[in-house]
């Protein structure tokens, strides 16, 4: 087994026998090979574990660990466990049903190292890329997930309180980000949304415009890719508000007075309803990037 791999790929599996062989084959083809796979199984009942053990036997130097506690935690807490168990300076989330392009690890690791050279290793840093949306049979549905969802990728830190453009399986982040953001709070929306929020406020986020993986969509997706529509822009205000409240609880002492007031305003949304909630959004200017997003925010809040 390799010691001190520079990259650990964090894979949470759950009944993934249909998809795992393709994913694992794509990892084997990476142009950058100083990586190890750290896996946590979330209570599979199919052949997932057999596939992983067979792969480990064929690649004994590539599996850093296989966490088998038998619990079904869901993706958010399962990935949190993986981050807590990780040791590498660069970490990448990995979904069992995707296919990585050969250059994914190399390009994201290089970009992350470049950011560390600019901002220092103690700064929480995150790199994320675009994705190609495909169906079960890998037929292309959209060549750009960002265009498909009408994402405005460049956004200020405030936008991450009510919005997210970072997809977990398309990210790389450093040790400083892992130590500050994890373990993920129980009431955070998702592990990737929480990580992006923390890095946006206390570090740096860089978007790479190149799609670096096939993002497979099927009936079993925990969270899928749906095109941006007015009806689909109901913004889960209560969830974002609750996450802001957790963010305030964990990091409130690190915020200046202006930022504390802003996060508090978002956290307060879940206690308001109807016109009072809309007044609160307008008064505190709690807006999302894009006109359509804000129309939806006010309509569905």
Automatic annotation (TrEMBL):
Pfam families for this protein: Glycos_transf_2 (PF00535)
Glycosyltransferase 2-like domain span: 9-178
CDD domains in the cross-refs: GT_2_like_d
GO terms assigned for molecular function: hexosyltransferase activity
Protein name: Glycosyltransferase family 2 protein
Biological classification of the source: Bacteria, Pseudomonadati, Pseudomonadota, Gammaproteobacteria, Thiotrichales
């Amino acid at each position: 087994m390799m010691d001190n791999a520079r990259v650990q790929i964090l894979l949470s599996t759950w009944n993934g026998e249909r998809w795992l062989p393709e994913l694992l084959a794509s990892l084997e083809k990476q142009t950058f090979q100083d990586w190890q796979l750290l896996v946590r199984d979330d209570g599979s009942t199919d052949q997932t574990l057999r596939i992983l053990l067979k792969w480990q036997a064929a690649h004994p130097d590539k599996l850093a660990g296989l966490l088998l506690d038998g619990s079904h935690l869901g993706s958010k807490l399962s990935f949190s466990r993986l981050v807590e168990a990780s040791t590498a300076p660069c970490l990448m989330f990995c979904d069992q049903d995707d296919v990585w392009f050969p250059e994914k690890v190399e390009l994201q690791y290089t970009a992350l190292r470049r950011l560390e050279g600019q901002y220092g290793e103690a700064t929480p840093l995150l790199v994320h890329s675009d994705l190609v949306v495909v169906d079960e049979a890998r037929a292309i549905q959209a060549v750009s997930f960002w265009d498909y969802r009408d994402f405005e990728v460049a956004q200020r830190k405030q936008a991450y309180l009510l919005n997210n453009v970072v997809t977990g399986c398309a990210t790389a982040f450093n040790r400083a980000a892992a130590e500050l953001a994890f373990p993920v709070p129980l009431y955070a929306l998702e592990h990737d949304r929480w990580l992006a929020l923390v890095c946006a406020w206390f570090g740096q986020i860089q978007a790479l415009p190149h799609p670096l993986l096939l993002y497979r969509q099927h009936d079993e997706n925990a969270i899928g890719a749906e095109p941006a529509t007015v009806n689909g822009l109901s913004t889960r205000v209560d969830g974002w508000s609750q996450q802001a409240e957790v963010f305030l609880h964990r990091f409130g002492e690190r915020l200046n007075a202006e930022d504390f007031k802003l996060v508090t305003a978002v956290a307060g949304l879940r206690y308001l309803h109807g016109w009072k909630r809309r007044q609160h959004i307008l008064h505190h200017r709690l807006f999302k990037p894009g006109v359509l997003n804000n129309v939806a925010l006010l309509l569905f809040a």
